[in-house]
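Limitations

Structures in this collection are predictions, not experimental determinations, and the ligand pose is part of the prediction. Treat each record accordingly. The example that follows, with DGJ as the small molecule, is included so readers can see exactly what is and is not provided: the inputs are given verbatim, and the output is the predicted complex.
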Amino acid sequence: MIKKRGRIVRMDTASTTMIIDAERAEYIYYGERLHSATERMDGVSSGRKIFSTPGKDAYLEYGAVFENADGGFAADFVYTHGKILPEKPIVQGLPSAYGEGKTLELKYTDAGTKVCLYLYYTVYEDSDVIVVSSKLVNGSKKEIRVRRLMSLQMDLPGDGYTVTTLEGAWARERHCVRREINGGIFVNDSKRGMSSHARNPFVMLQSANGTIGCNLIYSGNHKETFETDGNGITRVLVGMNDFMFDWKLLPGESLQAPEAVICYAPDEDELSLRMHAFVSEHIVRGKWKKRERPILINNWEGTYFQFDEEKLLSIAKAAREVGIELFVLDDGWFGHRDDDTSSLGDWYDNAKKTGGGLAQLAEKIRGLGMSFGIWVEPEMISEDSDLYRAHPNYAMKIPGRAPVRMRNQLMLNMADEKVQNYVVRAISDVIARSGAEYVKWDFNRSMTDCYGKGIVAGEYFHRYMLGYYRVVAKLVKKFPNVLFEGCAGGGGRYDLGNLCYFPQYWTSDDTDARERIAIQQGTSYAYPQSTMGAHVSACPNHQTGNTNPLSARYNIAACGVLGYELDLTALSEADRQAIAEQVSFYKENRKLLQYGDYYRLHGKETEGFMVVSKDKNRAIAVVNRMRNPICAPYADIRFKGLRAAAIYEIKERGGKAWCAGGDFLMNADLPLREWYDFKTAAENSGSVMSRMFLLEKRS
Ligand code: DGJ
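Predicted complex:
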């Protein structure tokens, strides 16, 4: 709910309140829901600004910076109006949250230049989230150059915050990193033209006053800055990165910043629950919103580029026999692609490898009783491709310079409308001729050589993103029944921008169960498990060489959207039987596993996950022991999210049932002693041991 009385604006969600003095452009309060009246709070001046510009504000990083026609950077924005709009304004060309209308619009004008700054706040009461964005309008008679336009500025009281970021690299995405911010400046950002494996846009700040999470609905370069000023303010800026950013704004034109998401919660578990609710309700959309997702088999780690129709069908048949529902044909089915050096852009079937083309192959897969999915990497081009030979100018490269080739490929210049239209045509054709029910959209390199004829260099990164969003928006609209899964060499572009189009995302190319624990735990701070692709792969693992028991590989993958990615025909009968049981268990519990309230568990010697049904009557917990030394220290765990006064029956898969109270299970550091199995000790030494518990409320 948004209420405005004079200059005081109050925004309430179910459990939080934000109060702003619109005239002073200051935050008065953000935190736990207030129940007292606040309309007369105009006597409070916090000095904590909702935006800042050079020439006016103290010397902290500014939220908006632009060069005036007079050659200066100064701007003195004065309050012009504050209105509650009945409908949320369309965020032109960018993905955005949906499902709430009422929006606070605040307008500030610089009298000298007539440039206006608009700030927008939309309140998502059900998930305790406020979505904030900004827009600059050039009301002057001359061109201005925007050097920075942040979506959100939040000046917080005090310093000494702990900042959590999700960091890593290819195959090591979104590990949780914590830092004390006790002065100075800290930046979490990406300059790679993608939200990146290295630094996700989600950030979390914690103090004795609670936890605040911020995220950005954007998939390109982003920047989150934390600065303390020595006078008891910590400034947080969230938005597009100003790295090499220089946007020409002609008279009458406007620049819209992507939407930022903020959420307050008393602690980090509650923050994740709120972020998950927001993503499921207001980001993911279309047919697959809140729908149970199919269990898939993907041939990538089973065959890589070496396959033919017979091999694919044999894997599909084995998959069907264990109950898998969707067959996904990964990289290597098009042009003459037998390795990663060719054919990107030639989205026509390699008849030799697909047995006469996608249409026939898809029909045969459907004949087995499964749906058919296909891999594409639409934003890329190989120099060895017919597309490149016909249209070398479609590639992103700077004239006269040798381009950087990552994974032997170049990128398409998606900032160019011609190229965008080509991609829409080519990918529409792949989907139409195969009738694919699922599409995996990959993106396997970072951006370099940014250049487009006629495009201002400082605009390129963002113009690329606008082009990319135009293409995915068209395709998703054209094929509303298709389940799209995003992918970027694993989880390199796992962000809220992409989740507006792709209901799920491939979490990481690291499929090692042990490594996946930290990756999935980190990812879960911001993104619900229904968006996390998680596959059981071969043992030893192809990325790390580690061995992990099939049960552990399954348990950990079952905490996301389950898939299998290995050559099922190469497994023993016993393993195939075990997989059939896994698949059947997942199907029975899919709703709980994919959409239950999700908690990270941390015990002595253990790490895990837990999902709890909304009514708290059922739960599944996966507890993993990371090491297995001789005479190991005892391990324990505390469960979360249960009803304290209820009695639960606890049953380990395949074990005996027993009963205990919810408060006991959540407080008692439950000892878990039976991990060590002498029979399998040698083969499993160094591997992750995993146990799955089912909890059912009895009274
Ligand atoms: C990177 C993806 O993350 C993998 O799953 C696979 O699709 C390969 N690309 C194919 O090139």
